[in-house]
Write a structure and sequence with these properties.
Elements lengths: L15 E7 L3 H5 L1 H12 L3 E7 L16 E8 L5 E8 L2 E6 L4 H8 L6 E4 L22 H15 L9 E4 L6 H15 L4 H10 L1 E8 L10 H8 L7 E4 L3 E5 L11 H4 L3 E4 L3 H24 L5 H5 L2 H15 L7 H15 L8 H4 L3 H8 L1 H11 L4 H15 L14 H11 L6 H13 L1 H4 L6 H15 L5 H9 L2
Parallel strand pairs: 1-2, 1-6, 2-5, 3-9, 6-7, 7-8, 10-11
Antiparallel strand pairs: 3-4, 8-10
Helix pairs in contact: 3-4, 4-5, 5-6, 9-11, 9-14, 9-16, 11-21, 16-20, 18-20
Length: 489
C-alpha cells in the first residue's frame, strides 16, 4: 500500500498557513486540528496549521513524511446505543518544524503576517517557569521561554503595531492555562530586561485565552492498525483515535477581543463564554468525579475496567444515582445541560473501543477524591444533614483499597507518593481489632489534612464511613455484593 497522500482528501483544498501550533501530539491533532479541518470544510475557510515540535526528541517520524496528512478515527457509542467508527483525513496541518532542529524557521513564523493565532498543548508541565532560560538560547528550554522570544521577534518585525499581536489559545490541562502562560511570559520579559514598550505591547496587543478541553484520545490504534489500513487503502504512521464526544470551551473574558479563529461559529461543540468555571466544575464533578467515586469500589470488587463496570446493572445504577442525587443538584449550570452531559459521560464510559483500566485511574486516588468529589460530599451534608450515601461508600472504599484489605490486593498495591502511602499505613495500624481501634483509624483517616486539605472528621461522617468500611470488609467483595450494598443505601 502507498502512504496517505492528497488523494485521500477527495478534492478538499489545503488551507494557507495562519496558525502556529506548539505540540505535535495525538491530542491536539485529534481535537483542535480535527475541529479546524471540519470548520474549514463547513465554512469554506482556509485556516492552516504549522506545527512546531517543542521538544528535542519524540517520534522518530515527522508529519512532513505524509505532507501533514493523517487520519482521525472517531469511535464510540452513539445516542441510540449503536457502535460507531468514523474516519476523517485531516488536511488542516501543513507541516511540522522541530524547534530544536530548525529554530531559525520557527523564528521566521513570528515575522509572518499571515500567522495570527497560536495554539498550544505542551503537556500539563509545559506551562512552567524555568529560571535558567535566557533570551539568547536557541531555543529556550521551556515553552514560555520560547513564546517570549517569538513575541519579541514579532514585536521587532512589525514595529510594535497593535494589530500584529497574537491570540494565544492554550490547551494545557491546568487551571487558567492562558493566564498562566501570560504571567510567565511577562516575567521572562522583565527578567531578561526587554524593552518597556515590548512589555506594554504584550499586555495590550496580545490576548491569552483560557480553555477547557474534553475528548478522550487513545492515540495510535496499534492492535488493529493493519486491518484499518487495509480498509482505508493506505498506510498512515500518524493515524490516531478519539472518542465520539468532543467539547471545547474558550474563555473570552470581558475586555478581550473577539476570537479570530471562528471555530464556535461552525462547531456546536465549541463554545466561547465569559467564564469557563461552570464548565470546568461540570467536567470535574460529573466526568472525573464519577470515575473517582467508582474506581476503588470496582477494584476491591474484582472489576478491572471502566467498560466492564458501567455495562453491568450494578455500575450503571451506581452512576445514575450518584450523578442524579449527589452531583447534579450541587452544580450551577441548567439542569437539562447537566443531565445531557451526564448521559454523554455514561456513553463515553461504555465505549467499546477504549479499554480504560481502573488501576490506571487509581493513581493518586486520595487527592483525586479531594479535588473531584469532596465538595459535593460536604455540600450534601450541609443541605441534608447526613452524608451522601454513595459518595461516603466510595470514601470508605478508598481506605479499603489503600490498606489492601480486599481479595486480590497483592495485584493492586496503592499508587501514590511514598509519604501518602506511609501515612495511610500508620492510620491502618490504629485498627487493633476492637471497635475503639477501628473508630480511631477512621477518625484519623478523615482528619488527615494531607489527604483532604483540612480535617473532615465529624461525628456524622465518621459514623457513616465506619459503617461502610465494616460492610466493605465483612466478606469478600464481588460485583454482586457491591450491588447489594448500593441497594441498601
Amino acid at each position: 500500500m502507498t502512504i496517505i497522500d492528497a488523494s485521500a482528501l477527495n478534492g478538499r483544498p489545503r488551507p494557507r498557513a495562519r496558525i502556529l501550533q506548539w505540540g505535535e501530539g495525538n491530542f491536539l491533532r485529534a481535537f483542535v486540528d480535527w475541529k479546524i479541518d471540519r470548520m474549514n470544510e463547513a465554512g469554506g475557510l482556509d485556516w492552516g496549521v504549522v506545527i512546531v515540535r517543542p521538544i528535542a526528541e519524540g517520534n522518530p517520524h515527522w508529519l512532513n513524511e505524509q505532507d501533514g496528512l493523517y487520519t482521525v478515527l472517531s469511535r464510540g457509542v452513539a445516542d441510540d446505543g449503536a457502535k460507531v467508527s468514523e474516519a476523517r483525513v485531516v488536511g488542516s496541518v501543513l507541516k511540522e518544524i522541530g524547534a530544536h532542529q530548525h529554530w531559525s524557521e520557527v523564528l521566521a513564523l513570528a515575522r509572518d503576517p499571515e500567522i495570527t493565532v497560536v495554539i498550544s498543548n505542551t503537556t500539563d508541565a509545559g506551562i512552567a517557569y524555568m529560571p535558567t532560560v535566557k533570551y539568547a538560547d536557541a531555543p529556550q528550554a521551556s515553552f514560555p521561554g520560547k513564546m517570549t522570544r517569538l513575541l519579541h521577534e514579532r514585536w521587532q518585525a512589525f514595529g510594535g503595531k497593535p494589530d500584529a499581536g497574537w491570540q494565544m489559545i492554550a490547551c494545557e490541562l491546568i487551571d487558567h492555562n492562558g493566564d498562566e502562560l501570560r504571567r510567565i511570559v511577562l516575567r521572562h520579559a522583565e527578567e531578561w530586561g526587554l524593552e518597556a514598550a515590548f512589555i506594554a505591547w504584550v499586555k495590550e496587543a496580545n490576548a491569552f485565552y483560557n480553555t477547557l478541553v474534553d475528548r478522550i484520545v487513545p492515540g495510535y490504534p496499534r492492535a488493529d492498525a493493519e486491518a484499518i489500513e487495509r480498509e482505508l487503502g493506505y498506510t498512515d504512521r500518524f493515524m490516531t483515535t478519539g472518542e465520539l464526544f468532543h467539547f471545547f470551551v474558550i474563555e473570552r473574558k470581558p475586555g478581550q477581543p473577539e476570537l479570530r479563529l471562528p471555530l464556535a461559529q461552525h462547531d456546536p461543540d465549541t463554545v466561547v463564554v465569559p467564564d469557563a468555571t461552570p464548565y470546568k466544575a461540570r467536567k470535574v464533578a460529573i466526568l472525573n468525579g464519577a470515575h473517582t467515586a467508582l474506581c476503588a469500589l470496582s477494584l476491591i470488587s474484582g472489576v478491572a475496567t471502566v467498560g466492564e463496570a458501567v455495562t453491568t446493572k450494578v455500575g450503571a445504577k451506581f452512576l445514575d444515582r450518584l450523578l442524579a442525587e449527589e452531583v447534579i443538584p450541587f452544580l450551577t449550570l441548567p439542569k437539562d445541560e447537566l443531565q445531557a452531559f451526564a448521559d454523554a459521560v455514561l456513553r463515553r464510559f461504555a465505549n467499546p473501543y477504549i479499554r480504560h483500566l481502573w488501576y490506571d485511574i487509581s493513581l493518586n486516588g486520595l487527592v483525586k477524591y479531594q479535588t473531584r468529589d469532596l465538595d459535593r460530599l460536604l455540600a450534601y451534608i450541609d443541605r441534608h444533614g447526613k452524608p451522601a450515601p454513595l459518595m461516603t461508600l466510595a470514601l470508605a472504599a478508598w481506605l479499603v483499597f489503600y490498606l489492601g484489605r480486599f481479595q486480590g490486593s497483592d495485584a493492586y498495591p496503592p499508587r501514590d507518593s511514598a509519604d501518602i502511602i506511609a501515612r495511610v499505613k500508620a492510620i491502618g495500624a490504629l485498627d487493633d481489632g476492637t471497635d475503639k481501634g477501628r473508630e480511631a483509624m477512621v477518625s484519623a483517616y478523615l482528619g488527615e489534612s494531607a489527604f483532604w486539605g483540612r480535617s473532615i472528621d465529624t461525628p456524622v461522617l465518621r459514623s457513616a464511613v465506619l459503617a461502610d468500611f465494616a460492610d466493605l470488609t465483612a466478606a469478600p467483595m464481588s460485583i454482586e455484593r457491591l450491588g447489594q450494598l448500593i441497594d441498601a443505601r
